[in-house]
Each structure stands twice: as C-alpha cells, then as structure tokens.
Amino acid sequence: MKNETTEMDIKNDTVPATSAKAVIEISNLVKSFGKSEILTDLSLSLYDNENLVVLGKSGTGKSVLIKCIVGLLPSDSGIISVFGKNVLDLNSKELNDLRQKIGFLFQSGALYDSMTVKQNLEFPLRRIKKDLNEAEIAEKVNEVLENVGLADALNKMPSELSGGMRKRISLARTIIVDPLIMLYDEPTTGLDPITSDEISSLIIDVQKKYKTSSIIITHDINCAIKTANRVIMLKGGKVYQEGSVESFQKSTDEEITAFFKLN
Amino acid sequence: MENKDLGSTAIQKPPMEKTQPKKLQIALKEKTAEVNNFLTSIADLILFVVRVVRETFSRGFEFNEFLHQCFQIGYKSLPLISITGAIMGLVLTIQSRPILVDFGAVSMLPGMVTISLIREMGPVITALICAGKIGSGMGAELGSMKVTEQIDAMEVSSTNPMRFLVVTRILAATLMIPLLILYADFMGILGCWLGANIKGEVPFVLFIGQAFGHVHFSDLFPAVIKSFFFGGVIGLVGCYKGYNAGRGTESVGIAANSAVVSASFWVIIIDMIAVQITDMLL
Ligand SMILES: Nc1ncnc2c1ncn2[C@@H]1O[C@H](COP(=O)(O)OP(=O)(O)OP(=O)(O)O)[C@@H](O)[C@H]1O
Ligand SMILES: [Mg+2]
C-alpha cells in the first residue's frame, strides 16, 4: 500500500459546483424484474473527477443501477447518458468501446476461477489495450498487484485466496486498464478495518492519479466518509437524499441516522 | 389437454360444489402457464442456437480458447475413453462368443464385434459417457461462471462471452467427440482381441483380417456423421444449460444435472433418427 497519507488526508467534501461536467447523467430510470419494480424513476449525475458514494438498504437496487449503467441489464425506460452517449441506443460495438472506459468492480469479485491471478489480471489488459507488448503487460500486472499489496499472489489460483485477497485482486483487475469511470460495488464489504481503510485510500489514490470519476456503493460508513465527495441515498428505487458527508452526518432524518449510527 | 381430468387430479381437498369451477380455473391457469413455460424454453433454445450460429460466423474467433477447449475435452477424456472402450470390446466378445460357438461361427466373432462397435456401441456409449463428463462439466462451469458474475465480468472487459465461452466449447466438442469415438472404436477392437485371446490364441494379423473383413465404408461413414451430431448436441446442451443458469448457487447443480439428462436424451434421439435415415439410404 502507498504511503501518501498526507495527500489523502486533505480531502474535499464539498458538492461540486453545478457547472462541473457530468460524465454520467441518469434521468427517470425505471427497471423492473417481472412484476417487482426495483428502480422507479431514478435520476442522478456523476461529475468529472468526483467520488459519489451511494448508500441504501440491501435490495434497493444499487447493484442493479450500476449494471444498467454498463448495459449488463437492459433498463425499461429512462435515459442513461455516459460521456454524452445514451447507453440504450448503442450498438454492440459502440457499447464495447464505452465499456473499455469503465471499470466495474463486482460485488462478488467475479475472478475467473479457472485462471491464475496473473491470467486474471492479464485478461482485460490483453483485450482492451491491444498494443501493449509482453514486458509492458508484466510491468502493469506487477504495478497493480503492488498497489493492492499482493505482489506475492501472482501465481495463485483464486480458490487459494482469502475473501479479502480476492476482493483486492478483483480491484486490481478493474484498475489495470486505467478506466475513466470506476463503478465500485461494495469494495470494502467483508474486509477487516485495516484492509478496508487501505482500500478506501486506494480508491482516493486512483481518483487522484488517473483522474477518474467513481460511483462507490458501500455500507461501510468509514469508507463513505473517507472517499466521498458527495453522497446519495437510495430508497424505494429513487434518490432519497443527496448531499455532502457532513450534511448526512448532521441529518436528523431517521432513515439516514439509522445508517450512520450503526457504525 | 384434458382439462376435466386435470381439474380433478389437481385438487387435493374433497371438491365442494361451489368452489369447483374456480379451482378448475386455477388448475387450468397453472397448466397453461406450464405449457407456456415449455414453449418459451423451446423458443429460448432456438434463439440460443441462432445466436451461436451467428457468433460462430462473425469476426473475431477466439482461436486460443478453442485450442484450450479441444485439449480440455479431447486429451483430458482419453484415460476414461480408453478404459471404457477396451472394456466395451472385451465384454461384447465374451458375451457373443457362446452363441457363435453354438452356430459354429467363432471365426465371425471379431467381425461381428467390430461392426457392432463401429456402427452403434462405440458412438452411442462414448457419446453417453461424454454427455456425462463433458456436458455436465460445461453446464457446471458455465453455470458457476454465470452465478458468480464471471460472465458479466467478461462482458465488461470487452469480451463477447458467447464467442469466448460458448462458441469455442461447442466447436471443440463437435470436433473432439467424433475423434474420441473413433479412438473408443479402436480401443474396443483391441479389447476384442484381448477377449478372443482368453480362449485360445489368435494371432493379431489374423484377428485384424477377420475383424475388418466385413467392415464396409457404409458401416463407418454414417457412424462418423452421426458422431459429429452427438458432439454438437452435447456441447450445445451443456453450454445452453450453463449459460442460462438462474441466480443462486443451487442453479449450478441444476444446470449440470439437466445438461447430462438432456444431452443423453438427445444423443439417443439423434441415434434413432440416424438409424432411420441410414436404413432408408443404404
Ligand atoms: N438478474 C436479476 N433477476 C431478477 N431479479 C434481480 C436480478 N438482479 C437483481 N434482482 C433483484 O433486484 C433487487 C435489487 O438487487 P440488488 O442486487 O441491486 O440489491 P443491492 O441494492 O445491490 O443490495 P445489496 O446491498 O445486498 O447488494 C433484489 O430484490 C434482487 O432480487
Ligand atoms: Mg449489491
């Protein structure tokens, strides 16, 4: 892990000015499975180079939301505009091009079981950055592994890793292609407090170093406090509250205090 | 659909006159839903086949993964197929011998066993074993990849999972299973030689002469053709079941299990159709 703590401690918690460029703009998104409507009329924006933390009870559709953003799940109606392009209108080639700019950390990690850690990390690299040579690929793999503090896991199979290690490897696999937008689905869930803190620092590092804009879904309030530039809370398939971390911490709304008190 | 029968069997409690029509309606609804489900699953399978065919002929074939799958399917099945093939030939020989002795036609033994191996036993038994080993393997592997979001992860890494996982596996199965079947035939003939040697020595050259003396092109050709269909259907069903697994870990088991059952079923069906066609043409 990096030792750039001083840089990380200085953090900007203010809501970006509305003039900031939005990289993702979602309006009136509706998504249902069969008869159950999960997202009802959801609208939000992600601005350039900000960390947007998304809170919400289990089952409110946070994972569904980010899957809609990358087009893994088709939404029923509404507009999802990423870099000015409506995801729903893209053909498969254009969607592929768009996905290359988006990093997606799956809630379950989604490491390829049949491949070693090295092959897992090389997989997106070889497919997205086709012009790299072998030396550059090896260098990149080592770099991200060091970033997540697991340089010695290179030749292990995913089944040999602990839950937290898997999470970190999948984070490494996500950042290896230098995405412009990062979608983190519960990056710290199931990790010990120290590792969680390191992951939170890493998220800030990534934001600073690669100028990424991120949506961070989390239940971990410490992670939220540390990484967030702005927080939104989902409820009933809509945005329930939006604001800075401070405004959430000061809030007297029961729904919100319940979230912050538990931790 | 015999709705009257269904109405009475679907109702557990003693029927009351007033509620009878309502219960009948419910039972009817359930049955319609079942039929609908069946029809949608058939439509699903057809759509899957169409997608597979389209992806097979689109640009960007995953050649490395195809080779890897050929290795996985072909090479890794060799020990199993060797043993079962040899035993198949041995058992057929031992079982047929007494009858042929009765008819005084023991010299026909190698020829008879070879023909039944090449025409029927080799292809069908090997295909059924492959349905168990390869079909279930694909169902379980793709099913667990689906459940643990690995297929989604591939998709966001700019990889078409249909092309990378499904097309390569189906093509590898279509190519490797016929080869495995030919290999099983060969091992079966060796097993037959072993069986022939249990009672009295049979020189290998003489044995081969007797074994292939009666084998014609028309025995081998239809068998090879149907082997390709066996391979294709095993790959297709295995991938279909795995790729369309539901959410939750129990779906992996269901996918693997139903892959074996359906693949074996289709092997038998194709065999029956193939026999009819061969019978008509030759
Ligand atoms: N592919 C799917 N098919 C059917 N239902 C789905 C699917 N994906 C999600 N759901 C349903 O959508 C709802 C929201 O799921 P989602 O995974 O988005 O929750 P979440 O907010 O991420 O919760 P958690 O914090 O537990 O991860 C759940 O009720 C789930 O059952
Ligand atoms: Mg989730």
Task: Please specify the SSE layout and strand pairing.
The complex is a heterodimer of chains A (263) and B (282).
Chain A: H1 5-9, E1 22-33, E2 36-47, E3 51-56, H2 62-69, E4 77-82, E5 85-86, H3 92-99, E6 102-105, H4 117-128, H5 134-147, H6 163-175, E7 181-185, H7 193-210, E8 213-217, H8 221-227, E9 230-235, E10 238-243, H9 245-250, H10 254-261
Parallel strand pairs in A: 3-8, 3-9, 6-7, 7-8
Antiparallel strand pairs in A: 1-2, 1-4, 4-5, 9-10
Helix pairs in contact in A: 4-6, 5-6, 7-8
Chain B: H1 3-10, H2 20-56, H3 63-73, H4 78-103, H5 109-147, H6 150-156, H7 161-198, H8 204-212, H9 217-243, H10 250-281
Helix pairs in contact in B: 1-2, 2-7, 3-7, 4-5, 4-7, 5-7, 5-8, 5-9, 5-10, 7-9, 9-10
The complex binds adenosine-5'-triphosphate and magnesium ion.
Number of helices of chain A: 10
Q: Give start-end ranges of low-pLDDT stretches of chain B.
A: 1-11
The CATH class of chain A: Alpha Beta
Distance between the termini of chain A: 25 Å
Multimeric state of these chains? heterodimer
| SSE string of chain A | HEEEHEEHEHHHEHEHEEHH
Low-confidence stretches of chain A at least 5 residues in length (pLDDT < 50)?
A: 1-17
